[in-house]
Every structure is written in structure tokens, then in C-alpha cells.
Design goal:
The chain is mainly β. The chain has two domains: 133 residues, no CATH class; 96 residues, Sandwich (Immunoglobulin-like), CATH 2.60.40. The protein is built from three helices and 17 strands. Helix 1 packs antiparallel against helix 3. It is globular. This is Spore gernimation protein.
Length: 235
């Protein structure tokens, strides 16, 4: 079964696919997250701030809140950005499941109220909105890094862009633009909304390509790239 785990691309969360044993659960996805990015993903700039050797003790879901109990290694080392990023990685991975809206953290069975040496306050469950600054303004949830796409392609995710407008560009294996469309999220300009579009593309050659998610600056119209997703693009 397929799940999504969230690494970092630059300093923003970026999802990647994982196959986990059925049934697909948050515990399975989180264990895959803790294993870190693959060599292919690392080669495309995906990283993790979760310390190697961190293990998952348990996940308990109650009333849309997942209590995630991790080993004490989870809060070892790192400054405030690293600490917030590793929290965001777990929160985004867990909340990809519809039954989970927020996460409460524990370390070796003890509730966490202040995380790491920077003393990040965790006095209650946290959700994606608490880490809005660590999400790209256009977060592509599908397709994911390494996926194979065919025309027409469905692209969905969330965005917080000026007037909720964004652009999605498919580049084929020849480096040519196979599609470059406008899309509109359900909200924007300070409020994150969702988008879900299906559109055709025309590739000149099958092979390694990419999806680029960007928006156009209202000041001068230049493209502000939010994320790139390496793909196998089929004609």
C-alpha cells in the first residue's frame, strides 16, 4: 500500500511516496519517514532533520489527534529551524491521513511541552497550520517525486498565493515544455486553499522530466518557483 512521507526540499516540506505493509497506517508511514530519504531522493535535494536512529514507540489516534511517541533521540541536536522542521515532518506525514488533524508529541512515553534546547512550546496538539512557514506556498501532494505520469495528468495539493493563482509546468525528457497551465486554489493571499486539476500535456520524448509549481510576481510578473518534482514523463 502507498503512503506519503514528508522530507525537506530546501527548508520546506516535500512529500515522497512509500510502500508500506497493509493496512496503511500512520505508524507505518512514520516508520518509513524515520528511515530517511532514498539515494534517488537525496540526489534531488531531499533531506531530513530527524536524527538517524530515532525510533517510533507508538501512535494512538483519538478524536482526530494522533499521540506520537518517539524515542529520545528525536530531540538530539540542532537549532530552532532544525527542531521545527523535524516536528513539521512528523505532523505533515501523520495528517496526510484523513482521520488525523493534529499531533501530540511524546518522548519515551512522556508528554512533550517544551521541545529541544530552543524550548519550542508544545502545550497542546499541533497541526499543519502551526508550520505554515515551513510549507512551500504551493505544496504539490500528487504526483510525488519519482512517479511516472501519463497524459492527462492530475495534480493536486494546497496553495497560499496571491489571489489564489498558481502555475503548473510539465517539462519532458527533451527539456521542452509539455504543458504550462494556470490553476486556482480555493483560497489564497494569506489563507491556504486546495487545488485539484487534470490537464493534458504533449511530450516529445518519454523519460526523466519534472513538474514545476510556481506563481507570477504581481509586481513584475517574474516566475517565483515554489517546488520542482522530478518525474518520469511518458508520451
Amino acid at each position: 500500500m502507498r503512503a506519503s512521507v514528508y522530507f525537506l526540499h530546501g527548508e520546506k516540506v516535500s512529500p515522497a511516496p512509500r510502500t508500506v505493509a497493509p493496512p496503511t497506517t500512520a505508524a507505518g508511514a512514520l516508520r518509513a519517514l524515520l528511515a530517511g530519504p532514498s539515494s534517488y531522493e537525496r540526489g534531488h535535494g531531499r533531506t531530513t532533520t530527524i536524527p538517524a536512529g530515532t525510533t517510533l514507540n507508538s501512535v494512538v489516534v483519538n478524536r482526530h489527534v494522533a499521540t506520537v511517541d518517539l524515542s529520545g533521540r528525536y530531540d538530539d541536536g540542532g537549532g530552532s529551524l532544525s527542531m521545527r522542521a523535524r516536528l513539521a515532518q512528523v505532523v505533515f506525514t501523520a495528517t496526510r491521513f484523513p482521520a488525523i488533524e493534529k499531533v501530540r508529541f511524546e518522548l519515551d512515553g512522556k508528554p512533550v511541552t517544551s521541545f529541544g534546547g530552543e524550548g519550542i512550546v508544545l502545550n497542546g496538539p499541533v497541526g499543519r497550520a502551526d508550520f505554515e512557514d515551513l510549507a512551500p506556498l504551493i505544496l504539490v501532494e500528487s504526483p510525488l517525486i519519482g512517479d511516472t505520469i501519463r497524459t492527462p495528468v492530475r495534480v493536486w495539493g494546497s496553495a497560499n498565493t496571491f489571489e489564489a493563482t498558481l502555475r503548473l509546468k510539465i517539462t519532458d525528457a527533451a527539456g521542452r515544455t509539455a504543458a504550462n497551465i494556470y490553476a486556482t486554489a480555493t483560497s489564497g493571499t494569506g489563507t491556504r486553499g486546495t487545488f485539484d486539476v487534470t490537464f493534458p500535456y504533449k511530450a516529445t520524448r518519454s523519460g526523466a522530466g519534472k513538474l514545476t509549481a510556481y506563481w507570477e510576481s504581481p509586481e513584475d510578473g517574474h516566475a517565483v518557483i515554489e517546488d520542482t518534482v522530478p518525474l518520469t514523463v511518458r508520451r
